[in-house]
Specification:
With 460 residues, this protein is an alpha/beta fold. Helix content is 19%, strand content 33%. The protein has 2 domains: 224 residues, Spore Coat Polysaccharide Biosynthesis Protein SpsA, Chain A, CATH 3.90.550.10; 209 residues, Hexapeptide repeat proteins (UDP N-Acetylglucosamine Acyltransferase, domain 1), CATH 2.160.10. It contains 10 helices and 35 strands. It binds uridine-diphosphate-N-acetylglucosamine and magnesium ion. Magnesium ion binds next to loops.
Length: 460
């Protein structure tokens, strides 16, 4: 069955009290709308139309790189039925159309596929959920035979003091699949005769019943899957529920997550066996942790590949980097984009590494900076030493060959090469490349004055 999709994302999201449009508010590091779109994309629809309105330019710009989306603007925003009518315009008549809200981020692709499988040219498919507290939601009204006959919005049931309807716990998730040609026609017949004076999409259900379409329903068990996000409290609650699911799935795969309430994954985290993650760690983008990797408390790790047996000690910040097997990093280390540590490299506290490779066994254990550097095997890089890689206009490269020993507090002024096996004395400023095996000392020569008398305090 040919399936098209309309994503409703034009609403203002007034209750967010934010300048950022509701569908761009982030959940697990991605806009709400990106989550719904990812689920929808799994159905491989013929067309996906996103109805935008409030903050239209911003929403469009956020998804500009996705060529599979068609954007249509709804202005003014006169209700979900009006939004659907605007959205259906570019869709061809054959097949069925799935309608989802841009503010229901955790809907699973399987749920959408199962619902779509129920629909055809003569069957309307509606996703419902029985919830403990249906306040605010549209209610599914069924006849004595259990067939759906209409949806009544909460506000309308209240206005009519319709207690029987208000007592219904089966709610409209706003996710439905309708025969496209029929839906296009039905949408033209909606009227704003309701409590909100809007065109309700839900109004088409009663029409489907009258037109003799079969109304099939599917139900979701897990409320978080269909939860709509309207304010920051719901956003935080959903973030929490989502993170807990990720933690459970990691633990299900054998990862030790010390406290599943204190981990945040904003992207994709892939773990080998026996990975240990201490509390308060944040993983962003694409992070891979090899077998037996240990992540200490309070680390922030973004777009990183960390090989087996590596240990990232607490309070470390890693971004765009590669950490080799058995390497030790931190505590309080910072690996910036382009940092590549080979096997058994040690990066200690208050060491910053940017766009630099460190070969097997190299060590920078304390208070140091390595930028645009190539560091050879077994190099020992002393405390307080830095590569002066930037001349105010351009970046230059420092090469430190294998087995070099750089003392403490050295400044290596790039471009410069320290030859293999060389030693640089503490406190040196090195501006010229050095030969292999050489000792280099680039500092004022020490003088000592024998029996020197310190100044005395003047007598009053
Ligand atoms: C809607 C349903 C309700 C359902 C609930 C589930 C209607 C009339 N009501 O109510 O039955 O239980 O969702 O969460 O459909 N939108 C537009 N243009 C508009 C108005 C809304 O694009 O003119 C978009 C919003 O951006 C949002 C979605 O449609 O993504 C739903 O709108 P919202 O105002 O949140 O509807 P609810 O009151 O939640
Ligand atoms: Mg809503």
């Amino acid at each position: 069955m040919n399936i098209s999709v309309i994503v409703l994302a034009a609403g203002k999201g007034t209750r967010m009290k934010s300048r950022l449009p509701k569908v761009l508010q982030p959940l697990a590091g991605k806009p709400l709308l990106a989550h719904s779109l990812a689920s929808v994309a799994a159905l491989k629809p013929a067309k996906t139309v996103v109805v935008i309105g409030h903050g239209a330019d911003e929403v469009k710009a956020a998804f500009a790189s996705d060529a599979s989306l068609d954007f249509v603007v709804q202005s003014p925003q006169n209700g979900t039925g009006h939004a659907t009518a605007v959205g259906i315009a570019p869709i061809a008549d054959s097949g069925v159309t799935l309608i989802v809200s841009g503010d229901t981020p955790l809907i699973k692709p399987e749920t959408l596929a199962n619902l779509a499988a129920l629909a055809n040219e003569k069957t309307f498919a509606l996703l419902t959920c029985v919830v403990a507290d249906p306040t605010g939601y549209g209610r599914i009204v069924r006849d004595a035979g259990g067939e759906v006959i209409k949806i009544v919005e909460h506000k309308d049931a209240l206005a009519a003091n319709d207690q029987a309807t208000l007592a219904i716990h089966e709610m409209n998730t706003s996710i439905m699949v309708a025969p496209t040609a029929w839906l296009r026609d039905a949408l033209t017949k909606l009227t704003p005769k309701n409590a909100q004076g809007e065109l309700y999409l839900t109004g088409v259900i009663a029409m489907a019943a009258v037109d003799g379409l079969k109304i099939a329903t599917a139900s979701v068990e897990d409320e978080t899957e269909i939860a709509g996000v309207n304010d920051k409290i719901q956003l935080a609650a959903l973030e929490c529920a989502y993170q807990h699911k990720i933690a459970e799935s990691l633990m299900g795969d054998g990862v030790t997550v010390v406290d599943p309430h204190r981990i945040d994954v904003r992207g994709k985290l892939s773990c080998g066996s026996d990975v240990f993650i201490d509390v308060n760690c944040v993983f962003e983008g694409d992070v891979t942790l090899g077998d037996n990797v240990k992540i200490g408390a309070n680390c922030v790790i973004r777009d990183a590949k960390i090989a087996a047996n590596a240990v990232i000690h607490p309070m470390s910040h890693l971004e765009g980097c590669v950490v080799g097997e058995g390497a030790l990093v931190g505590p309080f280390a910072r690996l910036r984009p382009g940092a590549e540590l080979a096997q058994d490299v040690h990066i200690g506290n208050f060491v910053e590494v940017k766009n630099s490779t460190l070969a097997k066994g190299a060590k920078a254990n304390h208070l140091a900076y390595l930028g645009d550097a190539k560091v050879g095997e077994r190099v020992n890089y002393g405390a307080g030493s830095i590569t002066a890689n930037y001349d105010g206009a351009n970046k230059h490269k420092t090469t430190i060959e294998a087995d070099v020993h750089i003392g403490s507090n050295c400044v290596l002024v790039a471009p410069v090469t320290i030859g293999a096996g060389g030693t640089v004395g503490g406190g040196s400023t090195v501006t010229k490349s050095t030969d292999p095996g050489a000792l280099t000392v680039g500092r004022a020569k020490q003088i000592s004055i024998a029996n020197w008398k310190r100044p005395q305090k003047a007598k009053k």
